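Task: fold both queries, return tokens.
Query 1:
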Amino acid sequence: MNTIKKIYIISFVIFSISIFYMSCDTNENVIDNNLSDSINPEDLYVKNEFNLDMRDFAAAINEAVNTNKDFKSLLHKEALKKFDGDFDVLIKNIVDMQVKQDAGEAQLRSANLRSASGFTVRDLLDDAFQTVSEKTKDESETSVKARFAELRTASPAASIVGSLTAKYPALQVSVPVAAEDLADPAYIPPVAFIPGEFRDDSTKHVPAMWRDSLTMIDAVNPPRNAVVVVGLSERYIKDIATDDVTPPTPVGLTAQVTEFGIYLNWNMPSETNLSNTIGYKVYKKVGTEANYSLVSSIVGYRNREYADQNVTHNVIYRYYVVAYNNYQTSSESNYVTINTPPRPAAASSFTVEQEALNLVRLRWVFGTSDYGGYVNIYKRNIGSGATNYDFVKRLQMPVDEYFDTDIKPGQKREYKIERVTGIGASIPKYDFIYTPYRDVSKNSAVYIKKVKYSDVSKIESWLRGAPEFKVKVLGVSGDKTYEIHEMYIQMNSRDDNKWNDVNVCAITNWKPGGSRWFDCISFYFVEDDSGISKWREVSLNAINLAKVIAGESTPYLKATDVIATVLKNWVDSDDEKIGYAYLNYYDPVDLEFTTGTAPAGGQLSVKFGN
């Protein structure tokens, strides 16, 4: 292979790899990944008929653009036509257009739906609906799987796309920004859908399908790259309310408080259809306000429900609804008044417990009727320079526990939970934990790994060689002291301030809740000249680890130093008192302890380990 050919091939490979990564980065820039943990995309839309229809259609479009390049190219070409002055594609205008099946693409599953004229957009999207249904693991009554199965049972040969376009003549997909991105074969756009409760001035995120999963995109700041958006055309009015007639008046308006807020629904006279009704307008009055305000315009004469999520607790709300078309508005429906209940009930109990070395379990209990909505979890570090609360997780109820693995040993943390419903958040509930360096689920051993003394000549004459220490090990639990062990340590050097490896075990089964639980362990060192381990009693006064309330009733753990008071003449006359060390359960396992209180005037240093 000549040099020029090699250079050409290498350049082509580098260019291809660059394009691949640029495409990946482009997709990543569209999806709002930073909020994927703090916001559940399922909370971005109410599970009503309209929203579920839009979600299911978005899932089918997403499947089609992921698997059929010709369909993505068709959307690109049709969007650029700007049939209504914007980059919109009316679905009813393209369903009969033919598309090619990509090489290697699976045969159409819904073979009975194949058009006589060949493989069409309708065929592709009907097939995509079935594919999405088969991929869906969720089997709840609002899932794509359940809704697809229900439709197939009722009308086995029906076209799903045909049913949707009949139900929503204004159904469209649009590419509001960067439509030219669809010409790039490597770029796969996310497919967003606009929920019925979308508000231009307040909605911050909208749900979107991407890579076979539901995520979200920013509804405020335009993306740099193309997004396919499913919704109803604001510009298409053909075949809708062609006659200058007054729409029928909505009847039977009702309101009830749900976990989403205040849910409204109403009925319509039997003569209601596309020729006289485009949709409905919902009006609302809050508290003592004098006038009603328009809060929602709902497109689709069959969409006779609305969930008002902009409500709070202990407030009176009033509503009425009118039907409208291109020419007139109906009379007002009946009026409804509803008083939202008090703030949601707080958890009756909330505890935080260490489960293992890097595992904390949060548990809570609510009243039997208080398991709707979701739970927000927060945490903060406490102590000097305490920070504000960080958002941890939002969990859909009912759920009563959460495991936090994002923890660091040795930190004091306070957790807070609140239950959130459509009418607001409950009073928070708090608990805190001091995360140990040891695994609380297992027995923990304590070793004295190394010992050194700053001036050996002060505790042992050179005539006697290297020092020998007697060590009494005491456990402290509350205000009680227990004798654990006696050890004999032989130093192997007379060098000042030099570590001596000793590796002696003081305890093997230190564990919270176990038979050998101690708040801390103390070690008393005596330089042994007599060779006889005769001791007088050693008394230890300890202050237990305590929960202290600081500031505005904010609890935190404060590890208080153990105060050691040794009785006079507590060793034999031939021995010398050297000093002590202690280890709290929450200290690092490899703690180094130095004390300068030895009567001999030097410093004793002890290095622990496990």
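Query 1 returned. Query 2:
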Amino acid sequence: MRRDFKEPARPHHDLVIGREELCAAARRQLTDGGSVLLHGPAGIGKSTVLRTLAAEYGESVRTVLRCSATESESHLPFLALADLLGLVMDEVADRLPTPQRTALESALTGRGESTLQRDGLALRLAVLSTLRVLAARGPVLIVADDLQWLDPASTELLGFAARRLGGTPVQMLCAVRTHAEQGQEYDRYLSASPPGTLALQVGPLSRARIATLLDHRGYTGLPRSTVRDIHRTSGGNPLFALELGRALAESPTPPRPGEPLPVPTSLRTLVLNRLEALSDEARRTLLVASAGARPTPALLRAAGRDNAEAETAQAAALGLLVTERDAPFVRFAHPLISAALYAQASAQERRDVHAALSTAASDPIERARHLALATTGTDPRVAQRLAEAASAARDRGAPSVAAGLGLLAARHTPADAVPGPDERRLQAAEDALTAGETDLARDIAREVLAHATQPADRVRAWMVVIDAAGHAMAEVDAVFPQALADAGDDPRLLTLVHYQLAWRALLVEGDFARARQEGALAADLAARAGDRRNELLALAFQAQAETLMGHPDAPRTIKRAMREPQDARVACDHNGVGSVRFRWLIMSDQLSEARKTVSALLREVRRRGMVEAEVHFLRGLAETELRAGHCGRALDLARESLRLARDTGIGERPAPCSPFHWRRRRAARPTGH
């Protein structure tokens, strides 16, 4: 009869997310008769993987023996051994020699004076004999979680038996907490496992997997920018991510876009308990490091921390910092340590730290950011410096950084200033769109629309909402009448709305003639308003629509779109004339020139941080390679494009605006349309 002594199973939906490769390796090892040791830091998901594998593999063995120790029990001798063998003693007792049985019963029940010093050999042989007796009746699986908390006596006995079970159908499936990011910290636990045990590191989850985990636990609807912050702060640790998600769900005042996440007390306690051993001065130095972007000992000294080297060395000895040879930066052992340390500080302490860094940092963008965080209330001087820093970040190809700086600029801009706070918020939203952070952009636009009265601000915000919808434009249909009403008879504002209406005609209605008409109208309105940038975008749309329709005006429109003056940003936009030219070359089977064109576009948008354009041009390069017969290269590029699109939420739905879709829709239309 099969004997299985185990804890109640947990609901299946709580189990493994993002551990497919690791579980596959463990299953192969167990199927081949080997043992497995899972290792990784606290909260990384070792116990979840352990339970899943034990539930799966436990079905194929006769006996499952389990133990799971806690830190508070680690001083009690033989407790883990009692968990493992206590329920099978009746089954094996009569098969053990009397001295072994007596010693084992005394250890398991606590009756008598059994110790490893007095009954060492008898106890060791008793554990080994017990496992052999059980294995003679069928395979045995030992499942041990949190090996680091096993009492030393049980660990020694288990290791003695494990090293002598060769050829016996006894396997071990264990998990142990380790702290080192690299190295062999788990090696000493292998001595308590059978020879040939496979050690598998349970590592952090990707951002996409963290998003799936949060959805599974009911923390749905979080903006992708928030999920990104949760992933960064948690370091991909599932437990930490869930705690951060719970704190957000329970917070009556969730952080505004760009603000740091709330770190719950549970996580602060978990990661900061080692701070108690630090001096007050060392803790202050770590707080400065937590506020800096890429802190170095030199930066810490410039910020007033004269003994930075000694104090960071003290923190490294406690495992709070990671020291790396030839690396100049001060790096926390886990991102959550930095976040929790910063969250624990008072508002005045944070302002003091940022004030020090605002003069110590060498980068003007970083100095402006710290100046803003050291300042309370509105301040036009600070707002202007932040706006300039955002512009510099935009020019460097860091639109995500520009968006964060723009939000800070808006926060410090007086209501009656020119440009006003809403204009700066909208610039931040547009930077967020460029960076692929569509949820953040949408949130900012909605915030502006809730109170803005200026037509220009409202129309610009509506455009952000529409752009953030991407190919799901039908879901924001109600926006268009409101945008037209806000635009009034202003040709500059009407240009923006009719350009989006051109895309709507194409994406939602599949009406090429209407799309071309709206694109041409947008181009004419932009020309009347002297808005060359949007005129070029509208002409590029018109030219692309006419090209795909086979319209006779296509060459003439392309020439208009390529005339000077040009706009460098539009030239490399995925909806700009460069993209139109690439499409023309592809359709003309000029593959070499098409590859050269799209590769140049791809380099430029990467330099500028234009994520959505990067997705499109990666896809275009993949199409070029496919047409050239380079299928492997095409597949790699398509996967890269898909991965980037999924990470940023761009193009998750099928793209009905692809040229293939357009041609298919056109072929299905009656002649004359």
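Both queries returned. Flag for query 2: Residues 15 and 48 are 6 Å apart (CA to CA).
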